[in-house]
Amino acid sequence: MSQLKEKLQSDLKKAMKEKDTFKRDVIRFVMSAIKQIEVDERKELTDADIEAIIVKQIKQRNDAIAQFKEGGREDLVEKNEKELEILRSYLPEPMSEDEVRATLEEIVKETGASGMKDMGKVMAAAKEKIGARAEGRVINQIAKELLGA
Questions:
Q1: Residue 133 per-residue DSSP state
Q2: Percent helix / strand / coil, the chain, rounded to 5
Q3: Exposed (0-12), middle (13-18) or buried (19+): which is 21, by Cβ within 10 Å?
């Protein structure tokens, strides 16, 4: 079993013992998403797979926050921001924009990318090297700059 999944399970037990229903519900939601994929694909998920699920849920919360702010629902904005805090605690320390740029420059050199036609190669390597440590849109934006878009 992956370390991240074990941590989620132990934190779920801890939240239940402490009667922290909010944290319990957030972790249960993540665990159900993990279980769903494991059942559908009949495979044990790795830490990277689980990080991808958490990143997807963070993106959903960010989208929801934007919509709730637009609709003037501060109560729901606050709830989603608390959920984000819990979800982010399971991801590795995020990279700064400078670290992402340095990593992407290295990838461009390694792959020999010379223009936008090589964007796929760069993004595939970036996903592998950077993973969940930076948002996809940030990686994409910097990669475009480096490839001269």
A1: G
A2: 80, 0, 20
A3: exposed
